[in-house]
Specification:
Number of strands: 9
Strand content: 15-25%
Mean pLDDT: 85
Structural class: alpha/beta
Helix content: 40-55%
Distance between the termini: 47 Å
Radius of gyration: 21 Å
Order of helices and strands: HHHHHEHEEHEHHEHEHHHHEEHEHH
């Protein structure tokens, strides 16, 4: 099958499976340039609202599996920080599997609230979500990055007190550094603070990150710095250089950025996140990466990238006195290799297309599961 025919088949399947195209068309009528005029907070909100099969496949096959692994290894239910949609499908999915810590009411039967910290930026939606049950331990109105970074924010102290979490789910659709924010964006600052606050986490913890991968969205200086950081690591670690070439058939970051800019951005982001974890003495246990494209009439296609990181506290050899940061450890060199060798983006659309071809009922089952999760909220 040719690439063009395959893309057409993929799009035909997803036009039927998802209501996304209709949402996009109606939104496109109100603006002339999707990339130039869409507010980043609106993009983030809309992405969380999509109930498409690609997104739910990642919930079930990646997020749920990671949560089950954590709960099994910890021998208890989990604490969860997230950006839920109105129907909070991720929370309901974890609740259904008995994976979240719950607090009972006076009758010791009804769930009073769950150990979930969540944020919603849109006021009217927040007002409607407040009435959902079971309640969250913390449900804030506003941007999660402000609650994490800004000490004057009304939720700052309460959220700080809830750390560490077992899972931090930052489900975004912006790049990590939108052009209008400068190289070190608010969300990147927030991620750095998350790592710092997760230092006291016992055992493993997971970071789920979703970003919108459109090279034109990125702040130029930020990309330059991220690419430079990745190139420096390749030059310092021959094994990392080797796996980089094996994976991309390019020997330099500059070469990859020219032949496959989206993959290069994704790899640079994964390397930066690994660096921040190492800075706080955290070891990259595992990494899984996913992607899918959004095709909608009237606007350019764009790529969504999703990552599932698993971290743990790394051992520190007693041969150097710590100064301003954790001394370089052997496992940190291993993490450099891991974050490159495991950066193999699973094409979710291809996965679902094969499901449709081989198991016709699979899509109906996905759609029914989405509806069942929607029905769980009261």
């Amino acid at each position: 099958m040719s690439r063009k025919s395959r893309d057409k088949q993929i799009q035909d399947v997803y036009d039927q499976l998802s209501g996304e195209a209709d949402q996009e068309r109606s939104n496109a009528e109100e603006r002339t340039s999707f990339l130039a005029t869409v507010d980043s907070d609106l993009l983030r909100e809309r992405e969380r609202e999509y109930r498409d099969p690609e997104k739910h496949w990642v919930r079930r096959e990646a997020w749920l599996k990671a949560a089950k692994t954590l709960a099994r290894e910890k021998g208890r239910r989990l604490r969860y920080l997230t950006l839920p949609s109105f129907y909070r499908l991720d929370v309901s999915m974890l609740l259904r599997e008995n994976l979240l810590q719950v607090f009972k009411g006076d009758d010791n039967e009804t769930i009073d609230y769950v150990y979930v910290a969540a944020f919603e930026t849109e006021p009217s939606k927040y007002g409607r979500m407040v009435g959902h049950s079971p309640r969250f331990r913390l449900f804030g109105r506003g941007a999660i990055e402000d609650a994490i970074v800004d000490a004057s924010n009304e939720y700052f102290e309460q959220l700080t007190g809830l750390f560490p979490f077992d899972i931090v789910n930052l489900d975004l659709t912006t790049s990590l550094t939108p052009q209008h924010e400068g190289p070190y964006s608010r969300i990147m600052q927030a991620i750095d603070v998350v790592f710092r606050r997760q230092v006291d986490c016992r055992g493993k913890w997971a970071l789920f990150l979703t970003t919108r991968n459109v090279p034109e969205d990125w702040e130029t200086e930020a990309l330059k710095q991220l690419f430079s950081n990745l190139e420096k690591n390749l030059s310092q670690h021959p094994k990392a250089q080797q796996v980089f070439y094996q994976l991309y058939k390019e020997s330099t970051v500059d070469g990859l950025s020219k032949t496959d800019p989206k993959n290069c951005i994704s790899q640079a982001v994964v390397k930066w996140l690994t660096d921040r974890a190492n800075f706080y003495g955290m070891h990259l246990e595992s990494l899984r990466c996913y992607k899918y494209d959004r095709y909608s009439e009237g606007i350019p296609p764009y790529t969504i990238s999703k990552y599932v990181f698993m971290f743990s506290k790394g051992g520190i050899l007693p041969i150097r006195v710590p100064t301003k940061q954790t001394p370089r450890q052997p496992w940190m060199d291993d993490d450099v290799v891991t974050c490159i060798s495991k950066h193999k983006l699973v094409d979710v659309q291809e996965k679902l297309l094969r499901l449709v071809e081989n198991v016709p009922s699979a899509v109906a089952e996905l759609e029914q599961e989405i509806q069942d999760l929607c029905d769980m909220i009261n």
